[in-house]
Structures are given as C-alpha cells and as structure tokens.
Design a protein that fits this description.
The chain is mainly α. Helix content is about 55%, strand content about 10%. It has 5 helices and 3 strands, in the order ααβααββα.
Amino acid sequence: MQSDRANQARLYRDQLITVGDFLEMKNQLIAEFRKLVRSSGNYSGQKWLKAIEVRKLLKISAGKLQYLRDRGQIPFTKLGGVTYYDSDKIEQMMEGHD
C-alpha cells in the first residue's frame, strides 16, 4: 500500500512546468483577456478614456486611480478640467508592461 502511494506522489520530468510554459500561458491569457474586455461593452475602442472608464477596466476605486496618477504610474492628460487616459497605456498596464 505504501509503495502505491509513493508511486502516485512521484513527480516525473515530463510533468514539470517550465518558464517557457508559463510565458506561453501568460500570452494566451492576455489574448483571451483582450477579447473579453473588447466584447464586454466596457471597452469602446476609443483612444482616450475618462476616469470612470479606466476605473471600470482596472476595477479600482477613484482613490486608487488618484494614487496611481500621483505616483506617476498611470499617464494622463487634463483638458478643460476633465482627466483623460490613453487607452493604449491602460492596456499596457493591464498586461503588466509598464
């Protein structure tokens, strides 16, 4: 009985996950995430996003968005008292490519 459990718990070389496997999976997940975001209706494909749209995409509060702006972690432009965010930069943030 002990030997059966030992054989079941043994890990074989072909069962290991490599860094390459993780990177491939990451790229697949990013591609799927892009499809979901674009098809969900929250992403309009426009170049500039308002704060409310960015908050919905990133699922963050207004305070967190302000914090990211203050720290220079999220680029923005102000025009007539309205803050706009570049959708390409937001997408890069979602991918983790600052």
